[in-house]
Design a protein that fits this description.
Layout lengths: L24 E3 L2 H5 L9 E4 L17 E6 L11 E4 L2 E5 L1 H5 L8 E2 L6 E3 L2 E2 L3 E9 H9 L2 H9 L3 E8 L4 E5 L2 H10 L14 H11 L2
Helix pairs in contact: 3-4
Length: 212
C-alpha cells in the first residue's frame, strides 16, 4: 500500500479538542461528554480484558484497552459513556455502535463494556478497538460447534475509530475504500489500494497527518 502526502488544511475555522479538556471524572452520557459535564470520579481501577481473572493493571503500565472496575464494590463499570482517569480519556466500546455513522452499525466487538483510550486528539478523537462485522460473525457462530465459535471469536481485527465530536458520530475505518472516503472529507489525498484491507500502521500514519 502506497501512502501519499496529505494536503494542507486551513485551521482557522476548525475546532480543536484535547484530552486535557476533560478533567478526571465520569461523563455519564454523550451529552455530558459534549458539554464537559463531569460527575465525581468514584475510585476505579483498570483491569485486563483478556483472561478469566481480569487482573488489575498497575498505573505505570500503558495499555489502550481495559475494563474499569469500581474499587469500593469491585463491580465492572458499564453505564458510563467516558471516563477521564490519570490524564487519559477512555470511551466505552458499546458507544461505537450506538452512535455509529451510517454503514458502521454492524461493527461490534466481543467486549461492549470495555473502555478504549483516546490515542490522538485534534480535529477529532482517534481510538482503536478489535471489531468485526456482526453479520459475518453471526454466520460463523451459526455454523455450529467449537469450530464455528472459534472462527467467530477470531474474526475481530484491530481497527481505527474516529469520533467526530461535532457530529456526535463514530466512524470505524473498516478497509482501504472506507478510509479513503474519510480522508476525502479532510481534503487529504487518497491511498493507493492494492487490496481491500488496510493495516493499522498505515491508518495511524495518515491520521497523524490530518488530525492537527
Amino acid at each position: 500500500m502506497i501512502t501519499t502526502n496529505a494536503v494542507g488544511l486551513d485551521h482557522s475555522n476548525t475546532s480543536m479538542y484535547a484530552v486535557s479538556d476533560y478533567s478526571d471524572g465520569f461523563y455519564v452520557t454523550l451529552e455530558d461528554f459534549i458539554n464537559k459535564k463531569v460527575t465525581k470520579l468514584n475510585p476505579v481501577e483498570r483491569r485486563a480484558i483478556v483472561g478469566f481473572e481480569k487482573k488489575i493493571i498497575p498505573k505505570y503500565v500503558i495499555v489502550d484497552h481495559v475494563f474499569l472496575y469500581t474499587v469500593a464494590d469491585q463491580m465492572k463499570l458499564t453505564g458510563v459513556f467516558a471516563v477521564s482517569l490519570d490524564g487519559n480519556l477512555y470511551i466505552q466500546q458499546k458507544n461505537f455502535r450506538k452512535y455509529a455513522v451510517k454503514g458502521d452499525k454492524n461493527e461490534e466487538g466481543n467486549n461492549p463494556n470495555s473502555y478504549h483510550k483516546v490515542l490522538q486528539a485534534g480535529r477529532f478523537f482517534y481510538l482503536e478497538a478489535e471489531l468485526a462485522n456482526s453479520w459475518s460473525k453471526g454466520f460463523a457462530y451459526g455454523s455450529g460447534g467449537a469450530v464455528g465459535g472459534a472462527i467467530g471469536s477470531s474474526m475481530n481485527l484491530l481497527k481505527g475509530i474516529v469520533f467526530d465530536i461535532v457530529k456526535k458520530e463514530f466512524n470505524v475505518l473498516k478497509d482501504c475504500k472506507d478510509f479513503n472516503e474519510f480522508l476525502t472529507i479532510y481534503q487529504a489525498e487518497n491511498l493507493e489500494c492494492r487490496n481491500k484491507k488496510i493495516d493499522i500502521v498505515t491508518v495511524r500514519e495518515n491520521i497523524n497527518k490530518i488530525i492537527k
